Amino acid sequence: MAVSMRLLVRRLIRLSHRNVAVSRAAVLSRSHCHWEPLFCRSFSDDRNTHFGFETVSEEDKAKRVYKVFENVAQKYDIMNDAMSLGIHRLWKDMLLHAMHPQPGAQLLDVAGGTGDIAFRFLDYVRTQQEQKRRREARSMQLQSWQEISNSYPTIDEGGRQESRAVVCDINKEMLKVGKEKADGKGISAGLSWVVGDAEELPFDDDQFDIYTIAFGIRNVTRIDQALQEALRVLKPGGRFMCLEFSKVTNPVLARIYDAYSFQLIPVLGEVIAGDWKSYQYLVESIRRFPDQEEFKYMIEDAGFYCVQYFNLTGGVVALHSGFKL
Amino acid sequence: MFPALTGPREALTHALRVRLLCVNPVAFAAAFVRSFTGAKDERPPPFDASLLRVLVCPLSKKALRYDAQTNELINDELGIAYPVVHGIPNMIPQDARLIQKEVDAQ
Fold first, then answer.
1. Taking residues A190-216, what's their average pLDDT?
2. Which of A132, A217, A319, B102 is spaced 20 to 30 A from A118 at the CA atom?
3. Does B54 contact chain A (CB < 8 Å)?
4. Which residue of B has its CA nearest to A178?
């Protein structure tokens, strides 16, 4: 009972948009000499939100996030490998395994940028289809010639819909990098690229079987709007899946993770991508994102059912999943 | 491959040819291919028409019409046109063009 009250109070605090990072900033400023001045918007009618540990107006956040990803787009994949020591591939593979898409599934990958999830999705479905075909071919070898000739029309029947992935991102640079990757890999069938806003998706209602957003939702200005849009475009029975950095549960690991995030990642960003500030924003935005339970409540608020989360790598990343019923 | 090097001129041209082929084979091949395809450096990638089945205007959620000449997706109801850049439709309302305003200006 006390636990739920505490969570309720925390939600109310979050809803009133109070800046709780000031105390944290004071603690961390000892170890960090490099801070942006806090923005003061006393005359703004629009609400304030956070950009890392800064407070900015909502429209500013969108613009600054856009700039961050425009700068890092070319080196995004390399930086991901360097920062997570390649573990991000395992996280995305786990997302696909949890998703277990069936042949004919329609995927919408929001904030998909460079297309990692979409590529994995198409690979998964194609491998499954090939395995199924091989199994069928093997079983057919024991049949008589009449049975085989009868089954020919059913093999060629293309009535079933092909699986397809649509990658949607607000940032044109990231999509460009993704499209180049796809062209390099020779994947074009069943893959589409759209520039769109997660808060205002350019898709009709009840279109997709699966909606994924991997490491993108913390950059969205109004997360609740993005969740509502996700609910709208999913078919009834569709699944919402979100991979995002979250709170580490183990205190020892949390200390190591904090030190790694604030000391090493911006340095890596400067060395590899030549951009300290963008990666400073990255680690700060991770700290400002709600933890696993709070985000689970936000997803339930939007109208999803059977919401659950799985902690990966000790809570560094959480995989949230919900259904539209 | 190894012509008779009869004089300095032949040697020079041979050396240049070898350099081009060995040091920069990619550029050589690219130039070769480009000469065949003609002056098509601006090849705009074709827009995937199957996307039209799922795409709608983000503001009104109504269906769109693809205009091949201007390479835009048009919402006739609201009079806005979304550009298609490098084969990727840009569905951000702020980047869209107002058609009615242009008609009034004329």
1. 93
2. A132
3. yes
4. B88
Distance CA B93, CA A170 (A): 11
pLDDT tens sequence across B50-106: 888 889 999 988 888 888 888 888 888 888 999 998 889 999 988 888 886 555 544
Looking at residue A59, its pLDDT comes to 82
For residues A323 and B62, give the distance between their C-alpha atoms in angstroms, rounded to a whole number: 26
- Interatomic CA distance for residues B23 and A212, integer angstroms: 45
* HSE-CB for A217 with a 13 A CA cutoff: 30
**Residues A128, A135: Cα–Cα separation, whole Å:** 11
User: Do B86 and A166 make contact, defined as CB atoms within 8 angstroms?
Assistant: no
Exposed / middle / buried, residue B14 (Cβ in 10 Å: 0-12, 13-18, 19+): middle
CA atoms within 13 A on the CB side of B50: 12
Give every CB contact of residue A252 below 8 A, 6+ residues apart in sequence. Answer: none
- Whether residue A172 lies within 8 A of chain B, CB to CB, comes out as yes
Structure tokens at A114: 């460079």
The answer to whether the beta carbons of residues A177 and A76 sit under 8 Å apart is yes
From the list B85, B86, B91, the residue facing A202 with the nearest CB is: B91
**Helices A58-72 and A76-84: angle between axes, nearest 10 degrees:** 90
A240: tokens are 């919402």
Predicted TM-score (pTM) of this structure: 0.74
State the complex-level ipTM: 0.71
> What are the helix (H) ranges across chain A?
2-15, 21-28, 58-72, 76-84, 87-99, 116-140, 145-156, 172-185, 223-233, 251-259, 265-268, 276-288, 292-302
A·B CB contacts under 8 A: 54
